[in-house]
Design goal:
Elements: H1 21-24, H2 28-51, H3 53-60, H4 72-86, H5 88-102, H6 104-124, H7 128-131, H8 134-163, H9 170-198, H10 201-208, H11 210-214, H12 216-228, H13 246-270, H14 273-281, H15 285-313, H16 315-338, H17 344-362, H18 365-370, H19 378-393, H20 397-408, H21 413-429
Helix pairs in contact: 2-6, 2-8, 2-9, 2-12, 3-4, 4-8, 4-19, 4-20, 5-6, 5-8, 5-19, 6-8, 6-12, 8-9, 8-19, 9-15, 13-17, 13-19, 13-21, 14-15, 15-16, 15-17, 16-17, 16-21
Length: 442
Amino acid sequence: MTGPPGAAAPGPSAAPPATGPAQRAVPPRRALLAGAAGNFVEWYEFGVYGCFATVIAERFFTPAAAGADPAAPLLAAYASFAVAFFFRPAGALLFGRLADRAGRRRALVFVIALMTLATTLIGLLPDRATAGAAAPWLLVLLRAVQGLCAGGEFGGAVALMTEHAPPGRRGRYGAWQSFTVALGLLAGAAAAALTASLLSPAALSGWGWRIPFLLALPLGLTALALRTALPGPPTRTPAPEPAPGIGTVRAVVLGVGRIMGWSAAGYTFLVVLPSYLQSTLGASFREALIATTLANLGFAASILPAGRLSDRVGRRPVMLAGALAVALCALPLLHLLRDPDAAAPAKAAALLAAGATVGLLAGPGPAMLAEMFPSSVRCTGLGLAYALANAVFSGCAGLIITALTAATGDPDVPAYYAGGLCALSALALAGLRGDDHRGALR
């Protein structure tokens, strides 16, 4: 059973060990590598899509007619971006239950294979000039498949990594999920930047944008090989409960509240930023990519230290610090980026710091979610909380920010969005128990 509602985050004495022979069958580092590899591939693709949102808008969505809103194609591109996120909860339920009942390994092998196939097909997809009105619908269909896979990926990967973590290192091992997210986003931005630097603007828009998507094929096959090579029996409890109970539902809702700031700030600073800088501040494509790369470098640099620190002092103080930092600094950051008199090193430092604040949330976040659910529903519960938060607060970030900025003319919309949601998330994080990180997983 999931236990009473108040047991969503028990202390050490209420958490019987969940490590049985099946869980010890996989060496910790092997589990870490297999779990993290799929996350890298997933977020590489999302980084590429974010960087090429303006190109995708041009190639797949009808340009605005005379007198129409010029932001319409970009809004359509972000709508297809959001579609993948709204399929994530369904994927979390489908593949989460598969992982909880049939084993982590089986579910993770399936989702990485399907994700790799969908991403590769995007790179081969005919655009509007070739396929006409069918082109955007085919793109949306592949994004939906990616969303289903991504929804199942997070829960299974985090469960695999945290359940096999050595004592006292759950935060550090869970942080690798977020770290490979950062690496994937950086790799996506780097692939986009390299492609843009080697090709002319016409070649980039015509066919060059496809190259980074096609690179997902060898990356995905590598992750697939790592997962199929996992030794031992599946990681699962002998008799999982037939369905999540009311305690799980309440824990999912609480989990969404605790990570919605992470979701909003992460996508505002790390994914939406390139198109925002181009469409709102008039930056060039290369300038926007450089800015995004700096923010992602700051994000990557802080994740693992934040996870390790949360193993020592607890998840609450580290994540609260990140949420409050975003809430207080988001507006000054955008003002600095818009200031024509601000020195380039100051802007670079601000971008690095913005990414680092998100890392304070992302480092302890996976372990915090894993500690909220018992083993029998862990993949489903933490995967669903993460998927719902991302669907609402990440997947819609580009759509909301672009639409509100166009409607109001206020360039501070991204700061209000990220800062406001982090302030609300801080309220939910304040209720974390201070000793959750010391007990064994249920």
